[in-house]
Design brief:
By secondary structure, the protein is mainly β. It has one helix spanning about 5-10, and strands at about 20-25, 25-35, 40-45, 50. The chain starts with 5 loop residues before the first helix and ends in a 7-residue tail after the last strand.
Amino acid sequence: MRDLDVFEALDIVLHPLVIVTVGNPEDPRKRGDTTAKWFSRVSRDPPLIAVSIEIYTNL
């Protein structure tokens, strides 16, 4: 088995589940997550993706 980078993995998975996590790295108790309705690859270098979440999500 070999390691995959994030973009190789995205090419393999047909319908991925995207979980967006945000928070304060200094305080792990202040974190939240939600699923994304849409995502797209933006750049390979640096590795960036764009996500769409509902405006009323409590993050």
